[in-house]
Amino acid sequence: MTAPVTPSPELAEIVGDKDLPRSEVVSKVWDYIKKHDLQDAKDRRQINADAKLEKIFGKKSVSMFEMNKHLSQHLTAKKA
């Protein structure tokens, strides 16, 4: 079990504002991407950001490998 992390206000628009384990954050972001059909049609590894995701990624499109790096910048670990 990983320690819960706090999403930034931008990320909270997608995953909610409760503290969650990092794996749960990633899972919820993927649910959002699939629900809104944001994977690129030609290259499924590319994610085409909508307005909410663009605030997190800082650009229109990221690879799924890059995505975790951007998510990290929007997560704060709880102080023990």
If you had to describe this structure to a student in words, what would you say it looks like?
46% of the residues lie in helices and 19% in strands. It has four helices and five strands, in the order E-H-E-H-E-H-E-H-E.
Largest sheet: 3 strands, antiparallel
Strand order of the largest sheet: 2-1-5
Which descriptor suits the 3D outline? elongated
How much of the sequence is in beta strands?
15-25%
Order of helices and strands: EHEHEHEHE
* End-to-end Cα distance: 15 Å
Mean pLDDT: 95
Q: Which structural class fits the helix and strand makeup?
A: alpha+beta
Q: Which percent bin holds the helix content?
A: 40-55%
Give me the count of strands: 5
Low-confidence stretches: none
User: For the CA atoms, what is the radius of gyration?
Assistant: 12 Å
- Number of continuous helical runs: 4
Domain DM2: 1-77
InterPro entries: SWIB_domain, SWIB_MDM2_dom_sf, SWIB_MDM2_domain
Protein name: SWIB/MDM2 domain-containing protein
Keywords:
80 residues, alpha+beta, three-stranded antiparallel sheet, two-stranded antiparallel sheet, SWIB_domain, SWIB_MDM2_dom_sf, SWIB/MDM2 domain-containing protein
Summarize the structure.
The chain is of the alpha+beta class and 80 residues long.
Write the layout of secondary structure elements.
Layout: E1 4-7, H1 9-15, E2 20-21, H2 22-35, E3 46-48, H3 51-57, E4 61-63, H4 64-72, E5 75-77
Antiparallel strand pairs: 1-2, 1-5, 3-4
Helix pairs in contact: 1-3
